[in-house]
Specification:
Elements lengths: L1 H10 L9 E3 L3 H9 L4 E4 L2 H16 L10 E3 L7 E3 L5 E3 L5 H5 L6 H4 L5 H7 L4
Protein name: Substrate-binding domain-containing protein
InterPro entries: Peripla_BP_I, SBP_2_dom
Length: 128
């Protein structure tokens, strides 16, 4: 959605662009962040999410409850007190790309810093 919003703002010749945010820290979003077109993206590291899901799946497969695993509870329109493990999202900005998505292995500097983005990468300190 951030990509579409930015495209629409540019097509309407809105300058300067207002702060635009997104979610999931996909590669194109990271590249928009380093160029300054996008302010930030919500980043949720996959490993803690996957680990929690795997722990819950194994427990359920063994017929165990999730009381010791799922520290949180959420409600849906039809079900109350659903066991959950709510993780804290990270606000990904140009200042923490290297310490988040690169460090976690989600994207490499080579993937982010293609020739088109090299100047912005150098400015952001994302060079080898």
């Amino acid at each position: 959605m951030a990509s579409g919003a930015i495209s629409a703002l540019k097509a309407a010749r809105v300058t300067p662009l207002p702060p635009v945010t997104g979610q999931d820290a996909d590669l194109a979003a990271v590249q928009r962040i380093i160029t300054g077109d996008q302010y930030m993206s919500v980043y949720k590291p996959y490993k803690p999410e996957a680990d929690a899901a795997a722990d819950m799946a194994v427990a359920l497969g063994r017929g165990e409850t999730l009381d010791d695993i799922a520290q949180d509870r959420v409600n849906s329109p039809t079900t109350k007190e659903i066991p959950a493990d709510l993780l804290t999202p990270v606000s990904l900005t140009v200042d923490n790309i290297k310490d988040t998505v690169v460090k976690d292995g989600m994207h490499t500097i080579d993937q982010i810093c293609t020739p088109e983005f090299m100047s912005a990468c150098e400015k952001a300190g994302l060079v080898r």
